[in-house]
Amino acid sequence: MRITVTIGDVTTTETPALVVNLFSGVTEPGGATGAVDRALDGVISQLIKEGEIKGKVGDITLIHTMGKIAPARVVVAGLGPADKFDAQVVRQVSAEVARYLRQKGINEAVTIAHGAGIGGLEPTTSGQAIAEGSLLGLYKFSTYLSPSKEASADLEDLTIVEQDQDRASEIENGVAAGIVAAEATILARDMVNEPANMMTPTQMAEIARRVAESEGLTLNILESPQMRELGMGALLGVAQGSEEPPKLIIMDYRGDPDNPGNNLGLVGKGITFDTGGISLKQPGGMEAMKGDMAGGASVIAAMKMIGQEKPKINVTGIIAATENMPSGSAQRPGDVVRAMNGKTIEVINTDAEGRLVLADALCYAREKGLTRLVDVATLTGAMVTTLGKACTGIMGNNQELLDKVTEAGRDTGEKYWQLPMFDEYKELIKSDVADMKNSGGRQAGSISAAFLLAEFVGDTPWVHMDIAGTSTADRTKGYQVKGATGVPARTLAKLARNLAESGT
Ligand code: BES
Ligand code: MN
Ligand code: ZN
Question: What CATH architecture applies to the domain 2-184?
């Protein structure tokens, strides 16, 4: 879809559909919606009076203009209550509207910049949210659907109309940023939705190579012999059950080459399929485990975004990619593996493989001199039980960095909630035979997993994001489409920008 910005007046712009909006509780629409209402002899206020238009968030009303104004149709989109309005509402509403237009077979539309007037949003923020919402809301994973099965033509052209020249160019900047964010998020979604026979560790490395090439990042791929040399016994223990060669993918963006210490490391879990290994998972729903590389995918996507946005900070993405398979060569429950930092782990459950591969990836990140670390992983089913799909659970050893993640999420609309790292929980992973065990049993499953990771970051400021719930959506709503969400790619890129700007 193409998104453009033009200067003009909505009532005189020729288009198959004009999108305006309405806050709930408003009886006499103002701004552009008011102008359209007057030009249509008060039909919108009439529909409000009759209770047909309520302005509830996501509500859509279609009005045919019958030649009274230049647009053939007016689409009134509800924004919900004014006191709950923010950029996230614009993302959600833009997505609902885009899908509505597609479903009506309308492939060209004009919209006002939601919220940039009465809503009080900056024009850039509005433009960015419209672009992100529309593009992400129209997302489809149709690679393996025969063309005949595919639905009607897509919405191809969206034009944002604004009267003021300066504000129009601000909206334009926002749209450009929104397109960058949406395209990277879509890359993450595509990788996660792709079946595991296609999205192998080798294929993840290939996609990282393409991103590195197009965005001017340095790429380095470690193969198993190098992993062995480095002593990555935890990662290799997981990989040994699979025929697919593991890859440690390292992507480097140099935005502040004169200050190598000004850096951020993003570490992603890239289990391209998680059968559980010898501690085999139940068959029901196992197909969802093709998405167990969502952390790695979001890191690759964030690196793409960062490569385009060019913040003044050095960012390294590290993705530990391998399959977790049961086989004659697979590791067994009871095996003890030694990670790169020399620490030993008793493998109680081969299905707790994410923390094993991350252990070595985090060691590697530290050896590389990274001074701040954020890891992203579909780590525990317990996280889905605890927080569901509304927000990502975060844990860590540095409150300042945790707060920065939460704050970045407020702008991107990707929510975060911190779980405690009380010392008491650490006991859950005590082992009789090794420095720790990889499963803490049934209690506080997400936190005990984080405690294992903590053993490999030392005192480096670190945040762990458990995206087991948020990496996929059960149903299509707002800008999320059933399947992969691309979370938390936009937040990671925003964090990099915020850290670059604060210069600390
Ligand atoms: N990839 C899973 C976690 C997961 C579950 C992600 C559901 C998304 C949806 C992870 O590797 C896993 O299997 N974790 C185990 C750990 C347990 C054996 C200690 C779990 O959560 O059951
Ligand atoms: Mn597992
Ligand atoms: Zn897993």
Answer: 3-Layer(aba) Sandwich (3.40)
